[in-house]
Design goal:
- Two copies of one chain form a homodimer.
- The first copy, chain A, starts with a helix and ends with a helix.
- Chain A has seven helices and three strands, in the order H-E-H-H-E-E-H-H-H-H.
- The first copy, chain A, has a three-stranded antiparallel β-sheet.
- Chain A is 58% helix and 10% strand.
- Chain A is mainly α.
- In chain A, a hairpin with a 5-residue loop joins strand 2 and strand 3.
- Chain A is globular.
- Chain A folds into two domains: 68 residues, Phenylalanyl-tRNA Synthetase, Chain B, domain 1, CATH 3.30.56.130; 75 residues, Non-ribosomal Peptide Synthetase Peptidyl Carrier Protein, Chain A (Orthogonal Bundle), CATH 1.10.1200.
- In chain A, helix 2 crosses helix 3 and helix 5 packs antiparallel against helix 6.
- At the A-B interface, strand 2, helix 6 and helix 7 of A face helix 6 and helix 7 of B.
- Chain B binds a DNA duplex through helix 3.
Chain lengths: 153, 153
Amino acid sequence: MARLVDVIEDMIKEMIDENDGIATINRSQLASQANCVPSQITYVLSTRFSSGQGYIVESRRGGGGQITVTRVEFVNKFEYLKEMIDAIGNAVTQQQAKNLLEGAVTSGAITHRDGEIIMSAVSDRALGLVESDIRSKVRAQIMKNLLLALISE
Amino acid sequence: MARLVDVIEDMIKEMIDENDGIATINRSQLASQANCVPSQITYVLSTRFSSGQGYIVESRRGGGGQITVTRVEFVNKFEYLKEMIDAIGNAVTQQQAKNLLEGAVTSGAITHRDGEIIMSAVSDRALGLVESDIRSKVRAQIMKNLLLALISE
DNA sequence: TAACTTTGACTTTCTTTGACAATTAGATTA
DNA sequence: TAATCTAATTGTCAAAGAAAGTCAAAGTTA
């Protein structure tokens, strides 16, 4: 008996394949197709389509709301950024972030300007409102999303 | 089933495009064209055509009353970003952020690419670990820092 | 037993609708 | 002429509706 997560994962991947790398999902509709509760879809998205796995997930609530899942292709050019995303893992301090970014700039993987921009988003100043015990995790999350955005243009 | 807001938003933008940057709207007439109640037009104007998004909305009630929507001609980047930072205030939802960024891209204050990058840093996904009651505040903080980084290049 | 999955009640966000208020131009009246 | 009425407009606000998100408890599996 195939697990529900796997079934749903496959359904979404198929949608992505059939649509040039982008799936547009109606959560409750997909849930009823898969015969499960809507929050199961959310679970699959967060465990199988994370930024570390190379996917960008966006959504909006309310009437006409929807979820889009974009697969990011890691072509050679972006190998470095992929490594970087791995290196970030699930937490980075401000200093580590800075070091990683400097390395990326030096190696030519990103421009100086992009490095500055990213740093401004993950600085302690920008994240001042985030409780310090989770700040490094939030920073990691943001940084991975930013890097994927750079890759996916 | 396109969202009504989007349909109306497009109608207004088309009017603006066709009239040298200024749309003159009769609210109830536009409402019946779009097959909705008049207050829907007001809603679209306030969520999609705010000053932070690069538009000036003026109106007059009474007989012969009307609404004019003017797209702000690009003055200078600095001014625009300042407006935007004001509009952000100390909290923004994901959708508001998106709308603001789209306005900035349209008016040429930031590039499409930068818009995408900023959005990726302030998306609900990126901020998923932040407790939801302060997420909008954290988003505002990050977004303002990013815009400041753009200003100070 | 520890990690992962499944479920569902509850929350948050965004949209749509409608009743009612405020404003204005122009017509009518005193 | 000045005051008043009337019809034509937009503005406001809260309730209802339509998604997706959260979280913790219960169930499964390795």
